[in-house]
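Researcher: Let's do a round of design. I'm pasting the structure tokens now; please hold your answer until I've finished.
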């Protein structure tokens, strides 16, 4: 379970990352440059990203980590240096924005923005994946209570009550205006997506909102439960033994009604210990779009003992 103080820091990062994506869209799009949008985004990065988020770290979080034993020259020192670099870039970019008026962005301006984005993305990764886990190991429950209280004070004092919600709403609106949510699959071909799903050590199938089978992976590979192309388009009820159809219907109806998101069970089957899960698939407003079935032989995992490090073949 993620601590409240960590949720605060990582939610800040999510907002900052969204702003970076919106900036990238602005500088990559063709046509007239929307300088107003760019100014709004960099004002957010200064007001919320630096004066609020970075202050949570610099005034409270980092000093506490040092007090609990992290060396000043370690990750905390690196993060502080990167905060200063971010500030230099934001000040430079804000100055360049004030001077910009041409329909085409100057090359030095684009270079400054790209350098800032690269720095900030890497900074967020280092904090989320390295520093925050280190902090979680050395901070105690009293420290967490203290951080939660101080973070709320800093946010209120720097930007007023409800700053996170205000900026989240603003960025959501700007995201919608600029083309909607980021589609990470847009740059991947269907072939790559299929190969990626086939590489997973699980069998997947998808039943749409009309209860019809529309997809399964590992088409040309041996599977725990044999499937053929003839199942595509058939109702899921036709793909199960008659004695279990009423259970399938119950799971799907509960998912469709929003009463259930997951159903799992496990069975012994042909010298395998098979774990089967059903996951409801919903759109951004919670409407039911179908169900993913995941089948996995977990017998090998039940025999695991101790630890195995990366690339340790012993």
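Researcher: That's everything. Go ahead.
Model: Designed sequence:
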């Amino acid at each position: 379970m993620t601590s409240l103080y960590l949720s605060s820091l990582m939610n800040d990062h999510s907002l900052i990352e969204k702003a970076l994506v919106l900036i990238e869209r602005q500088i990559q799009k063709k046509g007239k440059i929307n300088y107003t949008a760019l100014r709004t985004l960099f004002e957010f990065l200064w007001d919320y990203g630096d004066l609020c988020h970075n202050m949570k770290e610099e005034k409270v979080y980092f000093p506490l980590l040092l007090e609990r034993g992290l060396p000043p020259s370690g990750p905390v020192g690196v993060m502080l240096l990167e905060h200063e670099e971010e500030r230099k870039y934001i000040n430079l970019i804000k100055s360049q924005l004030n001077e910009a008026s041409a329909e085409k962005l100057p090359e030095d301006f684009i270079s400054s923005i790209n350098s800032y984005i690269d720095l900030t993305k890497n900074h967020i990764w280092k904090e989320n994946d390295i520093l925050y886990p280190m902090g979680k190991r050395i901070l105690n429950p009293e420290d967490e209570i203290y951080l939660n209280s101080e973070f709320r004070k800093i946010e209120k004092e720097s930007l007023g009550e409800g700053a996170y919600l205000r900026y989240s709403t603003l960025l959501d609106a700007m995201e919608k205006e600029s083309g909607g949510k980021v589609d990470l699959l847009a740059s991947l071909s269907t072939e790559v997506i299929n190969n990626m799903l086939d590489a997973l050590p699980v069998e997947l199938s998808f039943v749409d909102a009309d209860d019809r089978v529309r997809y399964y992976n590992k088409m040309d590979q041996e599977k725990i439960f044999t499937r053929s192309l003839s199942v595509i388009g058939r109702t899921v009820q036709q793909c199960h033994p008659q004695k279990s159809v009423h259970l399938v219907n119950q799971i799907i109806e509960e998912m469709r009604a929003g009463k259930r998101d997951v159903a799992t069970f496990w069975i012994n089957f042909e010298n395998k210990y098979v774990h089967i899960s059903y996951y409801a698939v919903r759109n951004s407003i919670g409407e039911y779009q179908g169900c993913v079935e995941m089948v996995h032989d977990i017998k090998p995992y039940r025999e695991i003992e101790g630890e195995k490090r990366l690339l340790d073949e012993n």
